[in-house]
Amino acid sequence: MPSSRTAEAPLLRLALADGRPATLLLREDSTVLSLDDSVVSSWDLAGRPYALVRETGTHRRGLDGGLLWKREASADGPRLRRRLSAAEGEPVVEAARREAAGALAVLRSQGEDSAVHRLATIVAMNGAALRADAARFLAACGPVGILPPDQYLALVVRVTEGCSWNACTFCRLYRDVPFRARRVDELETHVDALLAYFGRSLALRRSVFLGDANALCLSHDRLRPLVATVSARLPGRPIHSFVDAWTGGRKTATEWRAYAELGLKRVSVGLETGDPALLAWLEKPGSPEDAVALVDAIHEAGIAAGVIVLLGAGGERFAAAHAARTAEVLSRMRLGPDDLVYFSEYVDDPDLAYGRRAAAAADLQPLPPGRCREQMKEIRSAFRPADPARPPRTATYDIREFVY
Fold this sequence. Notes:
The chain is of the alpha/beta class. It has helices at about 85-110, 115-125, 125-140, 185-200, 220-235, 245-250, 255-260, 275-280, 290-300, 315-330, 355-360, 370-380; strands at about 10-15, 20-25, 30-35, 40-45, 50-55, 55-60, 65-70, 80-85, 155-160, 160, 180, 210, 240-245, 265-270, 305-310, 340-345, 395.
């Protein structure tokens, strides 16, 4: 069947041996195969699948081999999600690979060399190859705990490991990871390993995220050489990272400006709440005032902020104060169009201190999803942007749907 192309990226239309119509898109950073306009598979340039859309829902595959299955809410039921092990996800991944093999067989007869090369790379990534690849990823990078939603396709460079505080009552992400900062020579070796692992597929990773949980907490003298190393090794990619308000607030605007010059574009701050009483109950260090001062300093340096709000925290006991004071603090941050406000629903974990406390106090039970959505609306309604014509962007941040 003749092929057609678009100016944006090579686009091939074909029919598989079983008669199904297919579209193959050869992007600069990925390969996308669509069948019947309903089944869509996406691979990076190394042939690793990362997004597989099926009639049953969407599967997101992590570099460690695990998959997340999710289905959007509909008239038939609520939004669903479930984590799959690599073994559970293998049939879905293998089905996509067989579809790519079918397209490869057709295109080999048409002399489409670039498409044949792409698809051959994908077809070579069978179950054994993907298991070996996942082991290579973990050796090069190690586990990635969490990222902001807009950074799921960043290149994670672990300047630090673990969390410097690691005692918030509602978080277990780094409980078993001792906090440490890499030396510059260690970081160079780490970047070498990442570049060797990603190879051509680095094209899909358009930004850099400095991990782990609180990488920017380091003193300026220790941090700047590390950020400078990343900037030099990965030039041109915008840099993002986390920092807590308590330690981040110790840096001056001048110091933050040094990081802006190295490519730091956005800093994500876990505000959680503008209510000091609730913040103390969560055992989160610092105060809302620290968060405001931090955002002021990074804005002065030309860096954007990502501010994380924890919906449902404190249950009904804190609900009114949480909404009102969080809106007040967000308003004082003078957030603009380059900034983001993330609304993250608290996920109940009975094994954590928060969950144990909440179970012992009826008014501290987490708010149900519907009530959390109401709380988000309350905060957004009371929030006053510095320029109403240019407000910050907002996004939901569901840690249950994180995949890297």
